Amino acid sequence: MRLWAKANSQELPDIESVLILGLTDGVLLIRYFSFAKRQVEGDHWYSTVTEAKRDAEEVFGVRPTAWLAMTDEKDELYQLSVMSTAGYTFDAENAEWVRSDSSD
Which domain of life is it from (predicted)? Predict the structure, then answer.
């Protein structure tokens, strides 16, 4: 699942657009300086699409009706969306994926 929208933030005018990418566990909100040139500013993980949309509206000025569904293509974003999270857990306090302790 991919949802794209034009950003409209006076506080962050360099962010042109945002993309919500559905993962096997949660979603990423990817921020772009230029979507056409794939110039990424950064991303943030959310447990739900609703949370990502709320943040996009509050921080980047994305109106709820502005989201456009994009076709799923087997590109680098597709690979990221289906990557295995086995062996990792999400540390919500630090907002990052960390390797789980395992006894292989």
Answer: Bacteria
